[in-house]
Amino acid sequence: MKSLLKIIALIIISSYSNAQNADAIIKSVSDKFAKINNYTADVLIKIDVETIKIKDRKAKVSYKRPDQFSFKSDGFILLPKNAGQGDFMKLLSQKSTAIYVKEEIINNVKTHFIKLLPVDPNSEVVLAEVWIDKVYSRVVKLKTYTRQSGSYTVYFYYSSLPYNLPERTIIEFELKTLRFPGKLSGDLVELEKEMKKKGSKGRVIMIYSNYKVNQ
Q: What gap in Å lies between CA 88 and CA 127, rounded to an integer?
């Protein structure tokens, strides 16, 4: 009986400790983002869909604290709404319950795997799974489940850019979750046909340059 009580006590202590660790880890990421009041960057967008050749797009991304993102591009951008840092920044700016899952290696990087559950029942994001670099406290992978845009996964790659901003992101998602503008032309016509195929997936590579931060 005493042994059983000890095991239960250890489980409770471990769960409480993990919950504290999850909050502390998320805070370490949030504290770094808090140093950024605003930024702009140029983005080269490479769209990868099986059997379809789609020309690269160029865009300008703007961010204003705490969670305002905007894209201006030279054409339709094949992305779920707020994909990339947008949804994660919104999560950081609102109340969420953080659950520590385990340590995991992603792209040769040791990470903390944490689940975030928004407290707001009307939040567009239902659940976010985030993998955070144990050394640099930055997001390596993010999988987001939303009400209207399905789920998508983002991989973040870094160099020596300021404020731990990514140099490149890769976004993977199901094409059926996208909403197209009313009139399509050119390469987007073929893309719409591909969307109708069950299980069709898209992959977008975003390469950032010319960051201007806090200006």
A: 11
Among 45, 43, 36, which residue's Cα sits nearest to residue 63?
A: 36
Give the range of the structural domain holding residue 194, as residue numbers without chain letter.
2-213
Task: Quick: pLDDT tens for 100-145.
Answer: 999 999 999 999 999 999 888 888 888 899 999 999 999 999 998 8
| DSSP sequence for 77-135 | ----TTTTHHHHHHHHTS-EEEEEEEEEEETTEEEEEEEEEES-TT-SEEEEEEEEETT
Q: How many CA atoms lie within 13 A of 6 on its CB side?
A: 3
Torsion region of 107: left, alpha or beta (phi above 0 gives left; psi -120 to 50 gives alpha): left
**3-state class (DSSP) for residue 69:** strand
Of 156, 25, 26, the closest CA to residue 96 belongs to: 26
Tokens of 70: 């905007």
CATH code of the domain in which 92 resides: 2.50.20
Residue 24 near residue 132 (C-beta atoms within 8 A): no
Domain total of the chain? 1
CB-count burial class (<10 Å; 0-12, 13-18, 19+) for 140? buried
Cβ(32)–Cβ(142) below 8 Å: no
Q: What is the pTM of this model?
A: 0.79
